[in-house]
Hints:
There is one protein chain. By secondary structure, the chain is α/β, with parallel strands linked by helices. It folds into two domains: 2-203, Vaccinia Virus protein VP39 (Rossmann fold); 213-293, Helicase, Ruva Protein, domain 3, CATH 1.10.8.100. Helices cover 37% and strands 18% of the residues. It has helices at 8-18, 34-43, 61-67, 80-89, 126-136, 149-156, 166-174, 213-225, 231-234, 236-239, 242-251, 265-277, and strands spanning 30-31, 51-55, 72-77, 95-99, 116-120, 142-148, 175-183, 188-189, 196-203, 279-280, 283-284. α5 packs parallel to α7 (166-174) and α8 crosses α12. Bound molecules: S-adenosylmethionine (SAM). S-adenosylmethionine (SAM) binds at residues 26-31, 55-59, 61-62, 76-79, 82, 101-103, 120, 122, 125.
Amino acid sequence: MADALLGPAEIRELAARLGVAPTKKLGQNFLHDPNTIRRIVAAAGLRPDDVALEVGPGLGSLTLGLVGAVAHVHAVEIDPKLAEALPSTVTAPNLTVHPADAMRVRAADFDPAPTMLVANLPYNVAVPVVLTLLAELPTLRGGLVMVQKEVADRLTAGPGSKVYGVPSVKLAWYADAKPAGKVPPAVFWPVPNVDSGLVSFSRRRPPAGDIDRSDVFAVVDAAFAQRRKTLRAALAGWAGSPDRAEKVLVAAGISPQERGEMLTVEQFTAIAAAAKLSAVGGKLSASDRQPEEVDS
Ligand code: SAM
């Protein structure tokens, strides 16, 4: 039987007993509202045979909700004091605590292999944590994360939206993502000065299996580094020149006058594919280069 969920009094008492002073640097805002915990666990769409990966269990609020819902929970916590205290708060036998930085974990660190990421993420590293774990852990079939509302909007935005950008396209490469609700500041201690949002995602097949993710992401990074420019201009540095960018874009069936913020992840992948087709030995072919660049 799982331990009871933590309310405001229990969170204060636990923090005082452990001598925990929450830090901004580690994004430490702890949940103290059992209803929000139940809401997160329900929205995650967990199956009893799932293995949950929780990044940043903190004082254990969400961990307590997860251990009763899945077969196993891996909790990765960077703060040694919190990691050490967690097994006393959550006494369930199906919990493994990993005192580690979530940005540095590897698939081999987890047995059984995680299938779902469920976390109230440290807000300053939320996007890199989600993208790194999706890359590192192919067994993850999806997840539900709580992030700053503004970041939730970015992660789930589609082409044409003002907040569509690098995080939106990169997450779309791995997964179908959708907003799963807003969470008010009052359910945290200390109270943050921003709203929070839930993002649910489920892994999808990569847009084109034979194009390397890093090649697609290089196009995405270049396109959004100068998001107000046309793709012809924005991709000039990446392709070698505006003319070469235009050639690749036309070959990919995309107007060189278009802007990156209008493209789907499939279209970014088509650009990477067109560049690969015109490449020799990893570079654009000699016939595509400017005269001064042609090998002697
Ligand atoms: N899950 C808890 C809750 O809902 O009450 C705490 C969430 S708090 C927003 C974020 C937690 O992530 C903190 O416990 C913090 O110490 C931890 N953390 C911050 N950076 C981390 C990292 N790189 N890897 C693992 N944990 C991290």
